[in-house]
Amino acid sequence: MALRLRRLACVTLSALLFSTQAPGQTGEQGLLWRDGDPFVFCRHGMKHTPRAWIPVPDYTRTPPTPTPGYCPWPTPFCYYQTGWSWDEIFAYYAYLQICPQAERSGRWQGPGDGTRSPYSH
């Protein structure tokens, strides 16, 4: 049990350290997923499937929900379920940092769902 908590603390600490370096990276506020588009990232999450977490409306106030079959918290080590990849863990903490900064959760005003405007991302 202590080993699990120690691993979880290390993962959380590394994710927080990673998110503090974001301003020097490309994309909106250092967003590395969905080509730096915060609207698409906050509304649709990561592009690959299957993924460990999915966004839940209201995107500005509700944290992402873990996908059934994956660990219920962001960790790559899980004994009975599938662990999260490091990319999913970093994206989860980026979601928690970037998405609540929106004033409100709104709808896409253009054609389609926003993932193909101006190109597929």
Q: Care to describe what's here?
A:
With 121 residues, the chain is mostly helical. It has one domain (2-101). Helix content is 32%, strand content 3%. It has three helices and two strands, in the order H-H-E-E-H. The protein has helices spanning 2-20, 38-44, 86-98; strands at 53-54, 65-66. A two-stranded antiparallel ribbon has the order 1-2. Helix 1 packs across helix 3 (86-98). Mean pLDDT is 75; it is low at 20-25.
Outline of the structure:
The protein is mainly α. Helix content is 32%, strand content 3%.
Q: What separation lies between the terminal Cα atoms?
A: 40 Å
Shape field: elongated
Rg, please?
15 Å
Helix and strand run? HHEEH
User: Approximately how much beta-strand content do the residues carry?
Assistant: under 5%
Oligomer: single chain
Q: Overall mean pLDDT score?
A: 75
Instruction: Give the class from helix and strand content and strand pairing.
Output: mainly alpha
Largest sheet: 2 strands, antiparallel
Strand order of the largest sheet: 1-2
| Unreliable spans | 20-25
Write the layout of secondary structure elements.
Elements: H1 2-20, H2 38-44, E1 53-54, E2 65-66, H3 86-98
Antiparallel strand pairs: 1-2
Helix pairs in contact: 1-3
Features:
single chain, 121 residues, mainly alpha, two-stranded antiparallel sheet, 3 helices, 32% helix
